[in-house]
Automatic annotation (TrEMBL):
Residues 85-298 form the ABC transmembrane type-1 domain. This is Carbohydrate ABC transporter permease. It comes from the Bacteria. It is found in: Cell membrane. It comes from Paenibacillus illinoisensis.
Amino acid sequence: MAKLADPVQVKAIPSARKRALHRTNAIGWLFASPWAIGLLCFYAIPMLMSIYFSFTTYSILQPGEFVGMNNYKELFHDPLFWKSIYNTIYFTVFFVPLSIFIGVALAMMLNMKVKGMAVFRTIFFLPTLVPQVALAVLWMWLLHPNFGLVNGMLANIGIDGPAWLGGESWSKPSLILMSLWGIGQAVVIYLAGLGDIPEEYYEAAQIDGANWFQKTRKVTLPLLTPVIFYNLVMGMIGAFQQFTLPYTLTKGQGTPANSMTFYVMYLYENGFRYFKMGYASAMAWILFIIVMALTGIIFITSKRWVHYQGK
């Protein structure tokens, strides 16, 4: 005859499992607590405080007074605010598409089965390892209007080089050129995307008689769109946060004629040079809204042009 289980032991099994589950959860929260505390102290609380400060005259040195929407109203009547927005949008509109086009083209070239290709991949990635301050100093010498290497090379072939960073019309194109020099990280991501495309698709296209251009347009680019989408979003966000290069190149002055005064530079100047932290907080939230709106538009439109394998 089978022995019946003790009811006390049956009840003890679920409670033991619950204690083990609680213990596991407690250990998990213990390991996650440094991240959670950091997120709360260095991100969540400062963000909430900046919302409040944007409605005050807070200046770091003084608590300030509540002024409602005055900071936002003052921003819309600030000529330099609009100039910084124009400079930032100009940089974004030209840099992001060029970085995608050049990045994809370089990745396709570096994806070829050629001997010694690893060396070329390393060469294109190396500029991303250079600190941006050192990069700015290097390009200041290269683009110097009088004794710079670029204008010197142009003079050898009879071309009078522009003022580059010293001229209002060439300052932002010069910055775009510098930034494009460091797209090696994006190229690596494109290379990973190219490596993820199955060879069967190319073989099928080859059987159908497709040439190189048709393979690129019908196979490579459509299947690379998820990577392009990622780099588009990250590139747009990074472009709106452009700071280190223009700040170093102009020593924080935005010269010439404020053509290099970018949005985050002007935000920094208001917050930490003029101690108008309430004003700077208002600028930060306007930037947040702009970036979120553009990111939302990209996500919504991505349904039309981003293609995933198997879908």
